């Protein structure tokens, strides 16, 4: 039986409006809805007076104006970025130039292939002012953030833990409305599952994804998220046993309930699983694992 993820999808969105969503957190949503961004990029503002801005978002002038309008008389002291996709990081530099705040995040070390750029919003040439490795504590006026390196969706993905509310800004690592795309070589399924466990072990009360509503029942949600990935692995092995040898032949069956526009991204997630299955010796390939490789169950 397929794993049922307890998705959280209800969210009241008005583009450009600033919503107070917790005692320390405000959210402004960008007008960039789509199959990978749900209702749009949620830019978070943490604190009062001197604030941190998390994931400034896509390069949209009206969104930059909305962030500024949400902060009358306040100063941005920190700009924090979860990762380098075009729906998360591009406004970091313009906002930094306007406010003087430094940009914090993790640089990308894995080269990106051209065909990957078409799968999501695309990749930004993101370079932080303050590079993070994970484990750093970032302090502001009335708030304390810890950087947690959570590779998997991308190699440079950072989540930010807000100590005062036992909450985590989870970026694209964990989303309430959908599973996360893992695209090799920058994405890595083994890293992703280990990062899920890292977050699970911290016992957060709330997750604030960049897209969609917060997740309140954190432990059970992450358990289902991880179980879903292991179920996908079983489905791949079943397709191999049924005689499918190519990833693109498997996708329509494995992802029958998914929007076909997401099939190219789904194929990359299958590849991410296949790389791990080849590494563990359960599957053999006719060369290095790739989208167009032939696969078979290992003897």
Task: Please provide a brief summary of the model.
With 299 residues, the protein is an alpha/beta fold. It contains seven helices and 14 strands.
Structural class comes to alpha/beta
Tell me, briefly, the overall form.
Answer: elongated
Helix content: 25-40%
> How large is the share of residues in beta strands?
15-25%
Distance between the termini: 26 Å
How many separate helices? 7
Task: Give a structural overview.
This protein is α/β, with parallel strands linked by helices and 299 residues long. The chain has 2 domains: 18-223, 4-Layer Sandwich (Metallo-beta-lactamase, Chain A), CATH 3.60.15.10; 226-297, Orthogonal Bundle (Arc Repressor Mutant, subunit A), CATH 1.10.10.10. It is built from 7 helices and 14 strands. A 7-stranded mixed β-sheet has the order 1-2-3-4-5-6-7, with helices on one face. A 5-stranded mixed β-sheet has the order 8-9-10-11-12, with no helix packed on it. Helix 3 links the parallel strand 6 (102-105) and strand 7. The mean pLDDT is 93.
